[in-house]
UniProtKB/TrEMBL annotation:
<dbReference type="InterPro" id="IPR045584">
    <property type="entry name" value="Pilin-like"/>
</dbReference>
<dbReference type="Pfam" id="PF07963">
    <property type="entry name" value="N_methyl"/>
</dbReference>
<keyword id="KW-0812">Transmembrane</keyword>
<keyword id="KW-0472">Membrane</keyword>
<protein>
    <submittedName>
        <fullName>Prepilin-type N-terminal cleavage/methylation domain protein</fullName>
    </submittedName>
</protein>
<dbReference type="InterPro" id="IPR031982">
    <property type="entry name" value="PilE-like"/>
</dbReference>
<keyword id="KW-1133">Transmembrane helix</keyword>
<comment type="subunit">
    <text>The pili are polar flexible filaments of about 5.4 nanometers diameter and 2.5 micrometers average length; they consist of only a single polypeptide chain arranged in a helical configuration of five subunits per turn in the assembled pilus.</text>
</comment>
<dbReference type="Pfam" id="PF16732">
    <property type="entry name" value="ComP_DUS"/>
</dbReference>
<dbReference type="GO" id="GO:0043683">
    <property type="term" value="P:type IV pilus assembly"/>
</dbReference>
<feature type="transmembrane region" description="Helical">
    <location>
        <begin position="12"/>
        <end position="32"/>
    </location>
</feature>
<dbReference type="InterPro" id="IPR012902">
    <property type="entry name" value="N_methyl_site"/>
</dbReference>
Amino acid sequence: MQDASQKGFTLIELLAAVAVLSVLVMIAVPSYQKYIRDARLNHVRAVLLQNAHFMERFYQQRRSFKQTSTTWPALPYAETEHFCIRPQGNARGAHDGKFTLKAVAFDKSGEPRVIKINESLITVICESSDSACSDNDSFFAGGAKVDQQCKVFQ
């Protein structure tokens, strides 16, 4: 029989509370991580859109999306906190009336997806890509084969 002056929780009650909290944490953490990843993608999408508008203004002034026949113009926003942004493909040989801008995560193990926008402002997300951020590259090399499982970003 318990004395009325003793108050508190039993060991079983504490273990049950810890178990319930553990289950809640196991559910909440992945949801929060997905929320953070999606927020980062939406932010970089907005930055890509700003860069695409810059490219359109550049085209109106020069009648080409290229700075020269072999180079793209410098983008006003070349990166965010989590992504680098570059044109897709070499400007040499690219069609004057087309461009694609691509954002690739600095940490590809944490975010393997890439997001792209073209001159028609169509945004595409790809589940994986061979592209990687590099300080000495002014564009992402490779064509459509470097990005896999792409679909229009909603």
